[in-house]
Amino acid sequence: MDIKINDHFDFKRLNLVLESFNQATGFVTAILDLEGNVLSKSGWREVCTDFHRINQETKKNCWKSDTFLANKMFEGENYHAYSCLNGLVDVVVPIIIQGEHFANLFTGQFFFTEPSIEFFEKQAAKYNFDKNSYLAAIKKVPVVSEAKVKSIMKVLVQIIEMISDLTVEKMEQEKLNNLLKKSYEEIKISEKKYRNLFENMKNGFALHQMIYNEQGKAIDYRFLDLNPAFEELTGLSASNLIGNTVKKVLPKIEQDWIDKYGRVAATGESISFEKYAREQDKYFIVRAFSPEQGKFATIFSDITERKKVEAELKYRTFHDELTGLYNRAYFNEEIKRYDNKRQLPLSVIMGDINGLKIANDSFGHQQGDKLLKKIAQIIKDSCRKEDLVARTGGDEFIILLPKTSEKEAKEIYARIKIACQEAKSEPIELSIALGIASKREIGIDFEKVLKKAEDKMYQNKVHESQSVHNTILASLETMLRETTNETLKHSQRLHNLAIALGKKLDLSQHELDVLASLANLHDLGKITISKEILQKSGSLTNKEWKEIKRHPEAGYKIAKSSPKLNEVAEGILCHHERWDGKGYPQKLVGRSIPLLARIITIVDAYDVMTNGRPYKKPMLKEEALNEIKNCAGKQFDPKLAKIFIESLKNS
């Protein structure tokens, strides 16, 4: 190759793009040559910089892994993933310029699944790492799904293709520039060579004659020659351009284009600039020079795709991916601009969603994400165009209100609250705790204003928590009845049977209250299972039965996420355990099963037997009691079964 790639590969631009890429996605990157030497890096993990790349043995593992991964690319692959010898996942994208593979872009330093701590403990001992520091660094390494990696790698591949194309264009331009440095006489002698390059180059090239008015001001220019690439890039044909002026062909052209070219033709000074061409709806890098007085030549490179990638990276850097709102990074930057005398009074509203954790645990993160997006939209719709709305954490939002008094801020606060109350439950009612504070004087530290708003928000969250949890509990009970075959009558019967047995056992009033809640919510986990399975009239398949058997653990997880349900969580988890240890999910035996769960197991079985199911006819009372007697010591606590049978026979 006549021109060295390293001299033209734009490492500086790529490093800037990769720095933005790291900030937007958290993905680290590095460029290595084919010998494994690091040419540039961005955002490397602590475990690599402070451990793996320091220790000579693990550093050798890194080099081996990098070299292996670089040579592992299969034909047709844009990238390849590999688990390195030190235990982390790496991904490589080859950098190929005009068919020559001269370097590789690496990303990675993450896990696809939760890491084995035992593996890294052994590794710490093997390489004499400080165990606590090393494991702390391992915990900072993110776990990333393969689906997300595929999505991110599409962007990385686009970035590499973009930079590679620009490198080829720069190399071609240098070839052309070297040729154009010759005198006009030499160019005429080399006309054939020039014409061949001119016709086949990828960049658009055009030669023009500048047109001046009587005062010597550039007012138009005429097309003298152009190559096929210019036609392709601009969508304009040579037959319509050559011999015509730009104002005739493009009557809406901006004067700025003519002014720039006029200075080149007049002074002989070369220029390079990026510009959006409205007629073509494209971005170009334009390089202009003057071969002789009054004339100028232009070289056009289409950078529209690069601009799109840069715009996407910029958007990701400052926007929350889920809600589309601004993120904390943008908020931290903008507060410097807002915190000045012109924006006073400057008010802030801080918000924290109520019930997001229980929504995630009850209905899955997909429903939790819907809840987040719905509230984000409500907040945005309740604010004005000049207000700044940002999602600053998992369930946290900040609204910045310039030139807004506390009274005006309270009106926005009220709009958000009312909109949440009026919104459709999805699947629980929307609720957010809010706090307001205002800065009226420039001398007040805005951090103190934020802290005041945050304190008010948490005060309101505590005040609202009882009502919020009662509402969520009611939603869960309603959804449980809608999802399962458990009617309100079933819940009432179960409640009465359980309380009656609890009183026979001399339970305290608090224990009876917990037992009553457990009677209503023991099957809470079933809200995570499809209605098709729960209400199926025929026999369940093995797969469906396996799905049903996970409901105690699902219900336990939901209950643990709500302080109000915390005390029934163990009972929910254990109400399908058996006295003989053949139950599920933990296969507990005998008295290791919580007492309240043992009570619910008996009364629930009795109620199902005496009232039936869609797929099973009800039994007589005597038949059901006889079945419980037969299963005492196997499925049921024998002592509780005896007391239950006697109490019902005597009732």
UniProtKB/TrEMBL annotation:
It comes from the Bacteria. Residues 344-477 form the GGDEF domain. Residues 465-651 form the HD-GYP domain. This is Diguanylate cyclase and metal dependent phosphohydrolase. It comes from Halanaerobium praevalens (strain ATCC 33744 / DSM 2228 / GSL).
